[in-house]
Amino acid sequence: MSRLRRLRWIAPAAALALVAAGCAADEPTPAPGDRATSGAGPVTGSTAPSGPATSGTASPRGRATPEIVGTAATGLQAPWGLDFLPDGSALITERDTARVLAVTEDDVRVVGRIEAAEPDNEGGLLGLAVSPTYAEDGLVYLYVTTAEDNRVVRASYDGRSLGPTEVVLSGIPRARIHDGGRLAFGPDGMLYVATGDAGVPALAQDPDSPAGKVLRITPDGDPAPGNPDAGSAVWSLGHRNVQGVAFDDAERLWASEFGQDAWDELNRIEPGTNYGWPQVEGRGGVSGLRDPERQWATDEASPSGLTFAAGSLWMAGLRGQRLWQIPVRTDGSAGRPIPHFVGDLGRLRTVEAAPDGTLWLTTSNRDGRGDPAAEDDRILVVRLTR
After folding, report:
1. Rounded to two decimals, what is the model's pTM?
2. Strand-strand pairing, 253-257 and 125-130
3. Phi and psi (nearest 5°) for 15?
4. Which residues contact 99 (CB under 8 A, 6 or more apart)?
5. What whole-number distance in Å separates Cα of residue 76 and Cα of residue 377?
6. From the DSSP assignment, how many helices (H) and strands (E) are in the chain?
7. Does residue 37 surpass a pLDDT of 70?
8. Considering its fold, how many domains does the chain have in total?
C-alpha cells in the first residue's frame, strides 16, 4: 500500500518551492534541426513552438497566470486518469497498480481495483471519465489495457466503492507503447476515446482499425449518431498516440499527440479529418492532411493531459517537465504557447479543471521514467489569477 495522504492548502510561497526532478524520454531522442518528417522523406516545417498564421484581428484571451496553492494528495503511483464528481470530490486511476482512488476534502482512499488490467510499460489502467448523467446513473468509465486489447469499461460508483465492470468497447489494439487512453464526454453527451497506433503506424491510416484514432461513441459503446461513417466509431484518423482531449468554451475539440523524432502536436479535431501520421509528423503542408495548430520539439513536451480553463488550453508535459498554456483566440486559433513550472516538478501527466476553477495537476515521477521526490506522485492544486 502506498503512503496516500490528503493535504490541506499550503501557502503559495511554500508551494512554489516544491521540486521534484525527472529526466527520461517517452520517445526516442529527437533528431537535430527544425524540420517535419514524412514517410516519403523530409517535409519542410517551421521552428517550434509554431502554428498556423492567424489574423491580426483575432483577439487573444487566456491571460491567466498559474500559481501552485496546495497539494490534494501525495504517495500516488503513476496517476493517470482524473475526473470530478458532482460533489467536487475526484476519482483517480493509477496506471501500474490498476487501482481507482477517491480524493475527498478529508482523505484519499482506494475504492476499487480493475482486475482485467494488465499493466505493461505504457499500458495499464489509464483514462477515467464520470458520466455526464452521474446523478441519475452513477456510472464511471475507464480505459483499460488487458491481456488481449485496450477497452473501455464502465462501473457504478456509490461514493464508497466501485462496482463490477461492464465492457462498453473492446478490440482496440494494445502494445507496450502507444496505447492512447484518454476519455472525455463531449457537450453532446457522447464519449470521445483517444487511442494510439500500438506501435504499428499503418493502423493510424486504416479506417477499419480503432488504433491511431479519436473515436466517438454513445455511452453504451455504439458508433455515435452523426459520425462521418454511420457504422464506424471513428471521428478522426492519422494519429500516432493521443493522450489528451479537451473541449473549449465554444465546444471545439482539441487533442495533444506524441510525435516520434521531431514534433509533438496540438490538433483541433474535426470529424472525418486525417491528421497525417505516419505520412507526416508535425506541419507538412500536405494536401488532404490537416496540420497541427501548434507543435513542439519532443524534448519540450511529450504531451499527455489536456484541459481548458480561463480562456486557455493547459497541456501537461512528461519529458518536457512543464505545464504549457495555449491561449485560444476568439476565432478558434491557438495563440503562442507559454511554459510554466519548467523542470520544477518533474514529469507531468494529467491536468484537469476542477469545479472550483482551479487546475489539478499530477506528477508522473513514479512511472519508471522519472526521478521521484519523497512525496511523489502528487496532485498539485493550481490557482489561475488574471
Report:
1. 0.88
2. unpaired
3. -65, -40
4. 77, 93, 110, 112, 113, 125
5. 5
6. 2, 27
7. no
8. 1
Domain assignment of residue 376, yes or no: yes
- Joined together, the cell numbers standing for residue 236 give 478522426
Give the Cα separation of 142 and 131 in Å (integer).
11
Is 358 part of a structural domain of the chain? yes
If DSSP codes are grouped into helix, strand and coil, which group holds residue 135?
A: helix
Burial class for 220, CB neighbours closer than 10 Å (0-12, 13-18, 19+) = exposed
CA separation for the pair 256, 265 (Å, rounded): 6
Residue 274: inside a domain? yes
Amino acid found at 139 = L
- DSSP codes, 310-326: TTEEEEEESTT-SEEEE
54 grid coordinates: 492567424
Q: Name the strands in the sheet holding 280-281, side by side, starting at the edge strand that comes first in the sequence.
A: 41-43, 36-38, 280-281
Q: pLDDT tens-digit profile of 153-212?
A: 999 999 999 999 999 999 999 999 999 999 999 999 999 999 999 999 999 999 999 999
Q: Which three cell numbers stand for residue 298?
A: 519532443
| Domain of residue 185, CATH code | 2.120.10.30
DSSP state of 204: G
119-132, pLDDT tens digit by residue? 999 999 999 999 99
In three-state secondary structure terms, 205 is helix
Domain with 134 in it: 15-385
Which residues have C-beta within 8 Å of that of residue 362, sequence separation ≥ 6? 76, 79, 80, 82, 92, 305, 316, 348, 349, 350, 351, 377, 378, 379, 380
**Cα–Cα distance measured from residue 80 to residue 103, given in angstroms and rounded to the nearest whole number:** 14
C-alpha cell at 216: 466517438
273 close to 254: Cβ distance less than 8 angstroms:
no
The C-alpha atoms of residue 236 and residue 271 are separated, in whole angstroms, by 6
Asked, for residue 109, whether it belongs to a domain, the answer is yes
- The amino acid sitting at 41 is G
Amino acid at 80: W
On whether the CB atoms of residues 152 and 193 are closer than 8 A, the answer is yes
What is the number of alpha carbons within 13 Å of residue 54 lying toward its C-beta? 18
HSE (CB half, 13 Å, CA atoms) of 59? 4
In angstroms, the CA 256 to CA 244 distance is 5
Distance CA(93)–CA(305), nearest Å, equals 13
